[in-house]
Each structure stands twice: as C-alpha cells, then as structure tokens.
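R.M. (postdoc): so does anyone remember the format we settled on? I'll just put the structure tokens first.
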C-alpha cells in the first residue's frame, strides 16, 4: 500500500496553496536542507520527505538491492506522490534528485507538470565525448575513503562541494548531515549517485524543465548544465553567480524567485 510511504519517508506537508512543490533533497542530506528556502515559498503547498536511508526515514525499509540504483529511489518518490494523489505538481530536485525526479516524472507523468533542477548532473564521470567532472578512479577513491574513514570523508567532502572553508557554518552543517547518515546506506546511495550514467533519460523528459546552475560548482560545473539544457526537450537554464553546489541554501531568495516565475509561466489556467 502506497500510504506506507508516508511513514517510510517521513513525509510532511505544509502550506495550502493551489500549486504544489515537491522538494527532493540530494545525497547525504534530508528535508531539513530546504529550511532556508521555505520562508520564500509562502503561498505554495510544500511536500517534504527523506529518502529511504536518509534523515528520519524508516531505516528498516532500506533495501540494498532496490536502492543500489537511482530507480529504487525514484519508485519511492512515485509512491509518495501516489499516496498523496498529487496532480500537476512541480518537482524541485537538488543534485541527484534531478535525475530521480526525472525518472519519477517519466513513469508517472500525470503527477508532475514541471521539473526544476538545482545544480543537476546526469553523470558525474568523464566519458568519451562527455565531461562530467571526475575520473572514475578519483570517484572510486573517494568512495573507498567512506569505508576507511567515514568521518574523514565527510569532513573532506563538505567544503569541496559547498565552495566554502571547512570551518564555515554551511560546511560544518553539511559535514554533520553526512555524518548523521548511516554509513551503510550512505555508501550504497553514493555509488548509485556518482557512478551512474543517466544521460539516456534526458530525451524522454515529458515536461518543461528549469535548470538552476551555479556559476562555480565543482560537482556539477556549468558545462554539465549546458549539456542538460541542450539534451532536455523543453529546458531553460538560469546561471546564478554563486559558489558551490547548494544554491537553495546559499541563495534561497534568488532560487525562490526563479521557482515562482517558472511556475507562473508554465501554469495552465
């Protein structure tokens, strides 16, 4: 029964606006990472959740097979939408959730009408004819560090992806979020995130897409945003003058302005 996903994924709904936003967090995070953005989204109905294995989700429901691929997380998201009986919602996905959200929208096109991708990437690997930003050996070494020294991995990664010093408030918060995630589930989610290639999905996108691209993002550089814009059938991109991979935390007001404008333009009356 899909209603079980409400408890499994710690779903919370706030606001009573006519337009629904489903906010899907990235790897190593939880729904709390949207708190800086939420005050700027008054007037929307907001759906928050934690992916299975993250935040305050039901850890017992994490399936090492199902969740070894992003498709498993997309099915979880789809079940949440089924349980809430969402129609024509807007999916706001950060980082890997952009691809997870795209999968859910392809499988359940009636649930969503628009997709907003914050710092997205369909593939983090450098492959022939495509620059994702990382060599496979470098990513495998980073993943191996999770096994050897999980705290050290979190402390190292946080300032790299936030674009801020290790002692900054944001880097410390992100490092704490990484560390609060169960290492077993985190490793499986990390492998699904960083070693997958979902470029083949892009041409099947059924809805308009807004890409919010950080001007200086180590994880998802502007070249990746350009690739997405040219590969998605109905995509537009806004480049925000910012450092790091967490625009919704560092520039929430600008992100909210873009969300509002995109939803307004693409809402059918």
């Amino acid at each position: 029964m899909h209603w079980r996903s409400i408890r499994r994924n710690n779903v919370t709904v706030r606001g009573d606006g006519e337009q629904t936003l489903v906010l899907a967090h990235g790897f190593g995070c939880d729904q709390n990472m949207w708190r800086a953005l939420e005050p700027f989204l008054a007037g929307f109905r907001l759906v928050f959740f934690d992916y299975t294995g993250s935040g305050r989700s039901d850890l017992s429901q994490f399936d090492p097979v199902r969740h070894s691929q992003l498709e498993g997380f997309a099915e979880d998201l789809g079940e949440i939408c089924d349980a809430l009986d969402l129609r024509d919602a807007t999916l706001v996905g950060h980082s890997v959730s952009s691809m997870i959200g795209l999968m859910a929208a392809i499988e359940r096109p009636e649930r969503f009408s628009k997709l907003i991708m914050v710092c997205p990437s369909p593939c983090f690997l450098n492959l022939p004819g495509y620059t994702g930003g990382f060599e496979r050996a470098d990513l495998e070494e980073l993943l191996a560090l999770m096994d050897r020294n999980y705290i050290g991995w979190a402390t190292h990664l946080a300032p790299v992806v936030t674009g801020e010093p290790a002692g900054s408030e944001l880097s410390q918060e992100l490092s704490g979020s990484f560390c609060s995630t169960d290492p077993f589930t985190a490793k499986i989610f990390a492998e699904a995130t960083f070693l997958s290639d979902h470029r083949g999905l892009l041409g099947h996108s059924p809805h308009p897409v807004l890409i919010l691209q950080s001007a200086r993002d180590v994880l998802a550089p502007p070249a990746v945003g350009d690739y997405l814009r040219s590969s998605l059938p109905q995509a537009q991109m806004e480049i925000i003058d910012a450092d790091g991979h967490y625009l919704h935390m560092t520039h929430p007001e600008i992100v909210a302005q873009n969300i509002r404008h995109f939803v307004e333009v693409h809402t059918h009356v």
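R.M.: ...and that's the designed sequence above, right after the tokens. Also worth knowing: Residues 151 and 179 are 6 Å apart (CA to CA). Residues 70-84 form the longest helix (15 residues).
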